[in-house]
Known about the structure:
Elements: E1 2-8, E2 13-18, H1 21-29, E3 43-45, H2 79-94, E4 96-99, H3 102-110, E5 119-121, H4 125-133
Parallel strand pairs: 4-5
Antiparallel strand pairs: 1-2, 1-3
Amino acid sequence: xxSYTLKCENDHRFDSxxxxxEAFDKLKSAGMVTCAVCGDTNVEKAMMAPRVRPAxxxxxxxxxxxxxxxxxxxxxxxxxxxxxxxxRRKVEENSENVGDNFASEARAMHEGETEERAIYGSAKLExxxxxxxxxxxxxxxxxxxxxxxx
Length: 150
């Protein structure tokens, strides 16, 4: 596995893991690497600092707040993961999941054909771009809607 810091044309930076350098090249050429912020498909590798392991210490390091082996696997491992889990919980509690019908539902609400309500779901990239171009207020969520959590 290899981690790259990536950057889109809009100067959004994000990290992503790939099976190998060749896997990144193959996915990028197929248009399957997109910006995690705006969905742009023109993504390039950004300059990144090398990750070098420090030499072994003679004294054991201070333990983390809760050692990994004591924490359930489903528990968030970092404050960022905790924030993401909280965001997902709030979206799911306060919105209706319209699944793959998101684009048509959002457009129908925008055009006044159905009542306005909080919705979430999934849309193809081209459908999401069309909504934005037409002035429909939508935003990508930073988590996968169809994926179940344990």
